[in-house]
Amino acid sequence: MKRLAVLVAIFAGLGLLPLLVGSDFWLNAIMLALFSALIGQAWNIAGGYAGQFSFGHALFFGIGAYAVAVLQVDLGINPWLGMLVGGALGAGAGAALGWLTFRYGLRGSYFALVTLAFAEVFRILANSTPFTGAGEGILIKLNPHPAMLQFKALSGYYWLLLALTFACFLSVWWLERSRLGAQMLAVRDNEDAAAAVGVDAFAVKLKAMALSGLFMGLAGVFYTQRYLYLDPGLAFGPTQSVEALLVAIVGGIGTLFGPLLGAFALHLLGEAAQTALGDVPGANMVIYGTVLVVMVLFLPRGLASLGKAGLGKAGGRRQGLRRRKRRAKDA
Amino acid sequence: MTNAKTGGIGRRRFLAGTAAATGLLAAPGLLRAAPEGIKIGLIHPVTGALSYSGTQCRAGAELAIADINAAGGIKSMGGAPLQAVLGDSQSKPSIGASETARAIEDGAIGIVAGYASSICLATSQEAAKTNTPHIVDVGVADSIMTRGLKNTFRFGPGYGKIARDAVTSLDAINKAAGSPAKTVVIVHEDSAFGTGTAKLLSAELPKYGFKILKVIAHPTPMRDFTNIALQVKAANPDIIIPANYYNEYVLFARTIRQQQIKPKAIYSVLGGAASSYKFVKDFPEAAEGVMDTNHWFNPKSDLALKRKKEAEAKGLYYTYEVYLTYNAVALLADAIERAGSTDHDKVIAALNASTWDKHGMPYGPTKMVDGQNTGAQPVNTQVQGGQIDVIRPAEFAQAQVKFPMA
Fold first, then answer.
1. Which of B51, B122, B190 sits opposite A229 (nearest CB)?
2. Are the beta carbons of B137 and B57 closer than 8 angstroms?
């Protein structure tokens, strides 16, 4: 419950920011970090907890994004409803991709490559089919009204994103305490051993992919409504896949707070590098990349492991104490 | 007691005198306080996939600011100089929007952005929230100007206009030569610009009797055009129409030459390299004879030629990104000059009423309808003897059309 209290406190604090931050730029910068945290956590469910490393999460993002755009533009369906459909389709796509790949026993790098290929196939399909606007993309009519899931003030978008991100983090918190979460960890650590003790690994992985796809789809819906324009490259291109993976790895995969830490660290680093280096094109990206390499080399378990390392001694001591007590009892 | 070294003036008197003299010298400056700079946000993709074009755009905008400041700044505002607030969209619409918000918060009273159509859509929308005047520098998608954003203006033509002009010009060129060309293959990049252009051409060309044999899309980046060139060779069209970005255009044109494909014309629409000095210089054989319908300066305008010379003296290729962005900044500066204010509404009103003609483009005075300069038009160019010459419309032409290609 302590972790839940921390989670609620963090998001409550973040929720107050639009009232405290007068700058649209900084609010937008925090939004970009929150968005990364959302897609990072969505990836983390499948990649971090269930151990299914995907390189193609843009597939679910793009499906959610196109769902709300097509429903709105072609069929005149309200985007709030479109958001539900986008999330559901994202989840469905996650389950479908899982079903197609896991039934053939694809794991590790093979699974990663197949996800990458699927995202690319959908990019090409979106590029060729008229209902997605093909290469020209889809432009959503500007109608800044909450009923149309568009907001005049940036704070409207901020709170919507915060709610989606909170829902995602809350799901992961629940997952960590649930039977399904424990089964995911068992499958991640040793799928054969998990199956041997009665865990239906196929179903567990499928559920992980569906939950992951759900939040990725919702992130796609948010992106579409925020920028009101979508093309196949934006929706299914590798950018979102890489970003989702990156923030989770930097923050700490398989941890509740890792994607949040990773997202804010990377975005703050980017901003700091840009402020420090001014207008030298690309110099901030060089620093960003260098720090990333250093992090992966020297902190492979992500930023979240820093906290664990600090707690590690105390935790270790507590565990040792418990072990000694148990031994004493047994004796 | 007097000091021999200072000719009898005491230290205190010397310091007091120096301070007074300094004060007197500085007084006119203090009385005429330097006018505050007027900040303009320049948001371009200077990193990422579009970095070459983004860097060219930024260079063009900075040239304009330097020229305007050298000519005395905004005179109606006491000679206030223009100041650039630079932003890098990293070739992503979301970052473009974020950088626009940053520039506006840093005090930019106008935005010039963002090269690619998808980025222009995001930056203009972000600027619209604060009603900040936004000039689209290059983005050609027609949808940028049809959303009803009151703050958004475009100096150059959109691809609807460009594609329609391209077809009528091709028809005129073909008819003048006795209509030797009847079949066409379109090769286009698969994002908004290429797809939109191909769609318009596919709809328009048959109306003029051209038969479209194939429409081939390719992604950006694309590093091998052999398969596409072989498809073109198999179709054996009279005319090949490429619509893609610089690198892909160069590769495609070279592959066509390597595969010994000899159409009657390579007739580009917004061909990324077809009207590029760099392409002509680096690959003269592949470039020779290539025609293009594209943005271009008026070759008979002294102003345009002067600007070209200045840009080249700074080591720049005088590409469309440079002069379109230069003119986007100058158009905004002209509006601020006439408004005599940086008030958003006044600048927007001045832009709507703009009849600016100091652009050196083949346009005539600006005439804004829903933010679009309706006088803007593309021209036809052809590479002839290692030079890029304007061949149409007649009033701007430097050379006769060579069609069919030798």
1. B122
2. yes
